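<given_protein>
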Amino acid sequence: KRSIITYSKVTYYRKWAFRSYSRCLFLLDKYGFFLKFIPSKNFETYVPPEVFLGKNVKDIFSEELSSKFFSCFEKLFETKKTQIIEYELSVNNIKKYYEARFIISGKNNIISIVRDITENKDKEIKIKESEDKFSKIFKLSPDIIMITSIKEGKIIEANDSFFKLSEYTPEESIGKTSTELKIWLKVEERTNILSSLIENSRI
């Protein structure tokens, strides 16, 4: 579908923006000059509207970020399809993350719907940090650690200590079951431990 919106439809987006506290709307021309700004509650702009209105994107943002915006503008008019970009800014010395959607308005204008995604981004960063921490503990632990399927005991991943002490290589062990590798002296031992784990969520 062609992402072209007439200026008369800005009213609709204005109502939508006010309902969406973390979004606001900008109207620019195809050369990157800010023509209009529609604020929304709880959205803090990089600089005040009186500073950026009438100015060009490159007068407000860094050369690197401006270049990304202009690349989106060029692709927008070339493909007539909505363009989406994520970027970060320091607002009052606080790092903020944003998502901007660019849509053609009329022949030569652009509607930019900007959403503050800082909260979601911060969660993603914390999850990534947690995953990295687990990965380091997993790999560097002197104890044997394996990730296996519950039902079959198929080895999905194992740490270096497992390969070192078992003398199996990753090629020999990953995808095999603990029974096939004769890790358990008695199969019943795994069955009992698994039952306890399922019942108590821990051993």
Residues 137 and 159 are 9 Å apart (CA to CA).
